[in-house]
Structure formats: C-alpha cells, structure tokens
TrEMBL record:
This is Potassium transporter TrkA. The chain crosses the membrane at residues 42-62, 82-102, 109-131. Pfam families: Ion_trans_2, TrkA_N. The lineage of its organism: Bacteria, Pseudomonadati, Pseudomonadota, Betaproteobacteria, Burkholderiales. The gene is kch_2. GO terms for cellular component: plasma membrane. Residues 149-268 form the RCK N-terminal domain. InterPro entries: K_chnl_dom, NAD(P)-bd_dom_sf, RCK_N, Trk_Ktr_HKT_K-transport. GO terms for biological process: monoatomic ion transmembrane transport; potassium ion transport. It comes from Burkholderia lata (strain ATCC 17760 / DSM 23089 / LMG 22485 / NCIMB 9086 / R18194 / 383). It is a multi-pass membrane protein. PROSITE patterns: RCK_N (PS51201).
C-alpha cells in the first residue's frame, strides 16, 4: 500500500497531466521473433541460391560458344561451365575462362552480375538474421531485463489492448515499465511507437513470457482475440508467475469460472459492460458519457482507488471534502455507500472515490 505522501504525489501528477497532454516518447527497441522456424528459412534461402545458380548455368550453357578457356583449346564441357558459374557467382574470377563474344559479355553484364548481387544479398541477409541480429537482440534483451521490475506485460495489442496501454501511459505509467507481446508486426510497431518495448510472437509461448519476466511483473494484462486462448494464456502465466496479478478481458461470461480456476485475479467482460451501457443509454442522456468520462484518465471526473489522506482521517465517508466516497476497504472488509451507513475514516483505509480531475491542489 502506498504511503499518504506517495498518494499525494500521485494525485498531483494526475492534476498536472490534466493540464499537460501526454506525448509519446521516442520509440523503444523492437524485439523480433521469426514467424517461421530458422531451419525453414535457411532451407528456403539455400533453395533460392541453388535455383539462381542453376539458372545462370543454363544461360551460360546455351551461350557456351561465346566462352573461351585459356588453358586448353577444346570446347567447353559441362564441368567447365559448372566451374565458371560458381567462380563467377562467387566473384572469384581466376581469369582462365572469359567471355569473348559481344553477346557473351552482355549476358555476363546484364544477367550474371544481377544474379551475383542477389545471391550476395541472400548471404548477407542470412548472416545478419542468424548471427548479427540474434547477438544484438540478445544484448538488448538482457539490458532490458536488468531494468525490469514491477513492470506491466500486455499480451495482445488489438483494440482493447491498445486502449489499455494508452490509458496506462496517460495515467502516468513509465513507458519503460510496459512490455507488449503480439504476433502481428504492425501491432508491435504501433506499440513501440508509444515508447514501450515489444516482443513479436505468440503470447502463449512460454519462452516469450519468460523473456518478458512475468514472474517479476506487477501485473499481466491478457487481451487476446478469443476466450479459450485467454484461458490457456492465463494458465501459462500463472504457472510461471504464481504471485503476479493477472487481468483478463473476455467476451463471453460463460468462461469466467474456467478463468478463475486458471488463476485470473480480475476478469473484465467487455461484452457485458458494453451491453449494460447500451441498456442505460435507452432511458438516460448523461449516464454513459459520465461513466466514460469518469473511467478515462483525461476525463473531467476521475474514479480513484487510494489510501486515505491524513486530512481525511476522522472524517465521515459522506462528508469528505472534494470527493465522493463510494467504497472503503478496511483490513479486507468492504463498506459501500449504497449498503452501509456512513462511517468514520481511519488511517490505513483504502478509499474508492469520485472526484474532479481539475480540483485545485494547495501543495502544487
């Protein structure tokens, strides 16, 4: 539980953010994980090189009369052409076999040379992906992991996940303490543009969860596209991080029991919440806008869960200056304004209050 001074600093920071809009910092490192296996990628590139070499050999074979071997006077053989193809593509060029006709030289200039360039790009790209990029990513990941403690991991950066990340940033969460895991390159690029770190890959893979250090995380937000995947992901996270808070978004309420058994601490049903607001909107004009405004960090009113401040200790819950107390937690016992009579606030109580986001703060 945060101290009263920390609570006051948090409130002051919220008030400052209400005056100064949040701006995204410089994008952080994007950690990529290959969508296909390294073996498949390597085999594909080897096949491409073999195909290009074969194509070059066939063209040289058809124009073999335009080539001369300075070491012998006999016609070019298949072995000679294979040898010439390989040394030409590899840019070795011993000079023993050379094109002597104009057509052979044009073929070498406009056909063989581009093939040579493409093959070298394949070699360089393979070296970068399998050696240099891995080393750089491992170095960056280790450096990032040293800084990770009490951070937040977001699994899934769809519509709900992206809104949650932006809301966390708006509320003052340091982008350095946020990690997004998603299987879509576009989603990760959008997340890293906000200054958070990104891991490209399936969030259900335990190696990515281990790299994100969910065991040391403050919370894990699971916002994937389907509920069965959310259940499996919750099981994976809970098996790695027994004490980390897990917040899960679901669409169907029938999966709540399975999610509780899997280890979810908080379950948010986006479908149910949306349906309730739709029903309220039929008979009211202001409830839905007020709820949206209250839940948003940028709203005029804000819903806060905080420790009771020193000046509030001793006050009745129905007369707290500048705030409406809607709930109180005292040693695990919950008091609500709609079920319980007003009570006197004690030191150490946790309050759930509605207050203006723009109230003046005398300490600022």
């Amino acid at each position: 539980m945060a101290s009263p001074s920390a609570q006051r600093r948090s409130l002051r920071s919220r008030l400052r953010r209400a005056r100064n809009p949040w701006q995204a910092p410089r994008a952080r490192t994007l950690f990529t994980r290959p969508a296909t296996s390294p073996r498949r990628t390597l085999l594909f590139r080897i096949g491409a090189v073999v195909l290009l070499c074969t194509l070059a050999f066939l063209v040289l074979y058809l124009d073999r009369d335009g080539l001369r071997d300075s070491t012998k006077s006999t016609p070019m053989t298949v072995a000679d052409l294979v040898y010439f193809t390989m040394v030409t593509v590899a840019t070795v060029g011993y000079g023993d076999i050379v094109p002597v006709t104009a057509r052979a030289r044009l073929i070498d200039a406009f056909f063989i040379v581009p093939i040579r360039i493409v093959i070298w790009f394949i070699f360089l790209g393979t070296a970068y992906q399998f050696v240099i990029q891995r080393v750089v990513e491992e170095f960056r990941m280790k450096r990032l992991q040293k800084q990770l403690s009490d951070h937040i991991v977001v699994c899934g950066y769809g519509l709900s996940g992206s809104i949650a990340v932006r809301e966390l940033l708006e509320s003052g969460v340091d982008p350095a303490t946020l990690i997004v895991i998603d299987s879509q390159q576009q989603a990760i690029e959008a997340a890293t543009s906000l200054g958070v770190a990104g891991l490209l890959g399936d969030p259900a893979h335990e190696d990515l969860l281990q790299q994100a250090q969910v065991r040391e995380a403050k919370a894990v937000i699971i916002s994937v596209t389907d509920d069965p995947t959310a259940i499996l992901l919750t099981l994976s996270v809970r098996s790695i991080a027994p004490d980390t808070k897990i917040v899960v978004r679901i669409q169907e309420n029938l999966y709540q029991r399975q999610l509780r058994q899997a280890g979810a601490d908080v379950i948010v049903s986006s479908t149910k919440i949306g349906a309730l607001l739709l029903a309220d909107a039929v008979h009211s004009r202001y409830i839905v806008p007020f709820v949206n405004d209250m839940l948003s960090t940028r709203g005029r009113a804000t819903l806060l869960e905080r420790e009771a401040m020193p000046q509030e200790v001793g006050c009745m819950t129905n007369v707290v200056p500048g705030a409406i107390v809607v709930g109180l937690d005292r040693c695990g016992k919950i008091f609500s304004f709609y079920e319980d009579p007003p009570c006197r606030i004690e030191a150490g109580d946790t309050l759930v209050v509605i207050q203006s986001a723009r109230i003046p703060d005398p300490d600022i």
